[in-house]
Amino acid sequence: MKCCVIGGTGFIGSHLIQALLETGRDVLVIGRKEKNRVNLPGGVAYLQGDVSDAEFIENALEGVGEIIDLAYSSVPKTSFEDPLNDILSNLPSSVALFNAATHFPIKKIIYVSSGGTVYGEPLFLPITEDHPTNPISPYGITKLALEKYAKMYFRIKGLPIVSVRPSNPYGEMQIGFVGQGFVATAMASVLMQKEIRIFGENGTVRDYIYVGDLARAIVAALEYGSPGECYNVGTSIGRSNLEVIEEIAVLAKKNAIEPRISFMPHRPFDVSANILDAEKLHSVSGWHPLMGFREGIERTWEWYVSQQASGQY
Amino acid sequence: MKCCVIGGTGFIGSHLIQALLETGRDVLVIGRKEKNRVNLPGGVAYLQGDVSDAEFIENALEGVGEIIDLAYSSVPKTSFEDPLNDILSNLPSSVALFNAATHFPIKKIIYVSSGGTVYGEPLFLPITEDHPTNPISPYGITKLALEKYAKMYFRIKGLPIVSVRPSNPYGEMQIGFVGQGFVATAMASVLMQKEIRIFGENGTVRDYIYVGDLARAIVAALEYGSPGECYNVGTSIGRSNLEVIEEIAVLAKKNAIEPRISFMPHRPFDVSANILDAEKLHSVSGWHPLMGFREGIERTWEWYVSQQASGQY
Q1: Where does a domain end: B233, B248, B278?
Q2: Residue pLDDT, tens place only, A156-195
Q3: In chain B, which end has fewer C-beta atoms inside a 10 angstrom radius, N or C?
Q4: Residue A49 sits in the same domain as residue A104
Q5: Partner residue facing B155 (CB), from A136, A151, A152
Q6: Which residues contact B137 (CB under 8 A, 6 or more apart)?
Q7: What CATH number corresponds to the domain at position B297?
């Protein structure tokens, strides 16, 4: 019985595949990139194709028992620039996947949503899963719509699908300057001596979760999540952009560099704070984050420094 | 200042245009049909075009002060048969419309959502606007997603957009056998001596609102609705399919015909009951339904009988 990861070649995917292999699973990755451009651990199968192509996905799911849908073609920033592309490049493929999955004896399917965007401006903190969902980005709206399709396919067709809502992941292998991932962009900026832009007095407050903890949470939801339900994945701790930069500054000092910050006015499309309560996932699976923020930031920084040494930045 | 109705040539649209004309408004209708296939009251302008075409809609909105978005290319039944088409034929055009509207000095824009589908299985009755929204049809999901875009464009760009959530409209000019509109399908079935299928013991319970009352509610939301908010439009009264048929049977008896009913098992994609509390719209606008169910059914029946006399059924 294979565990199939859709979009498993990105930042979260590479950590997730590691976590799945550690549980002894047989992993198949499906992606849009050509096979020779994909770097996967030994023993992991790869299939190139378009998930919204009904014939392709029906063939690909033969022998598959678990599915994790990680693929997404946009980030909040690009979704503002082109909301129609955010719809067209994300909704049809995941809906086609859910629909195709109803034809197979799937044990569990995980849809990776976005706890950082589906709630919108918080009415209370930390945010629990029953908080109203009023996203303020097209990205958050399509993520939320896909959660609703997931719930509907469970209700109507019995598809055992679980949604997870991660807060803001960070860690090794996250790429900077793509409009998502403040830690990555801040570290890359420090190393390149570029200015880090902060919007508002201390910037926004986010719940930063180490990507290894997120990968374990997805596996926990795969093993223990109740179909039709959604689960926050976060740390219950919020940190402002300025606090993150202060942590990075301590490490940068050893390399004799200093962050350069420019302060900009608050942007209307940033929620002021996003901190998630993950007690629901903890109570069904025992999962909780293991990585301390300081240690996670150190590991990530070391990865960035090694990338710079290899000419990446 | 023109009031622009997108998709104004259908069942609700024709009643709405009448209500708008009665308030003295200058009405422009935008639709996909050719002009010579559209039947509009004198003085109403018509523009044929595709709303998702940015250049077309930017030109069309010149001089427009109010917009009502009624266009929808699917009904719940067809959305199940082809969920991708439900996405592709509805989301891009309304999002493009909202986006284009941000470039004009629009006084108010109304998005006509669906109170009959966005809530899903009710946790309490009658349903208020803060009830959870977990649609169990693709149609309900795309309607809900468009409400979220509406709210986002208000929050981010200040677009003065209001969503209305009608219950189940019925009345003259509703067409039967299109997978939506139980009253229309039941009346047409009786007149054609076709069996009416009821799913479950008494069928589902719905909140039937006379289309003239709905048209006045949309005008009330246009005049008094608060931007960023959504408003139920319903009667707070639920009727089972069987109760509706009993009302029709009284009228049919005069024509010496009798409804023929076949009972089918309950369908998993039907919510058992949907009854809406419209106190929120009442409190801001004074609107409330004026048409009694018996009188509304009588008018609708008379229209159907006249249609049959003219060879329509």
Answers
A1: B233
A2: 999 999 999 999 999 999 988 887 899 999 999 999 999 9
A3: N
A4: yes
A5: A136
A6: A152, B76, B79, B80, B117, B269
A7: 3.90.25.10
Regions in chain B scoring below 70 on pLDDT: 312-313
Do A76 and A190 fall within a single domain? no
Q: Which of B57, B74, B152, B271 to mutate to test the interface with A (most CBs of A within 10 A)?
A: B152
The predicted complex's ipTM stands at: 0.94
Residue A221: other Cβ atoms inside 10 A = 26
A155 and A286 fall within a common domain: no
Judge whether B96 and B57 are in contact, CB under 8 Å: yes
Inform me whether the C-beta atom of residue B88 falls under 8 Å from chain A C-beta atoms. yes
pLDDT score recorded for residue B313: 60
Mean pLDDT of A207-213: 98
Lowest mean pLDDT, pick from A31-40, A146-155, A187-196, A211-220: A31-40
Q: Which helix (H) or strand (E) holds B300?
A: helix B293-309
Q: What pLDDT sits at residue A313?
A: 60
Q: Are strands A273-274 and A205-206 parallel, antiparallel or unpaired?
A: parallel
Kindly state whether residues A198 and A54 are assigned to the same domain.
no
Query: A188 with A145, same domain?
Result: no
Q: Supply the DSSP string of A123-150, one letter for each residue.
A: SSSSBPTTS----SSHHHHHHHHHHHHH
Q: Answer yes or no: do B88 and A92 touch at CB < 8 A.
A: yes
Sign of the CA dihedral running B16, B21, B27, B32: positive
H or E stretch including B295? helix B293-309
- The pLDDT score that the predictor gives to residue B270 is 87
Nearest CA to A263 out of A202, A205, A198 is that of A198
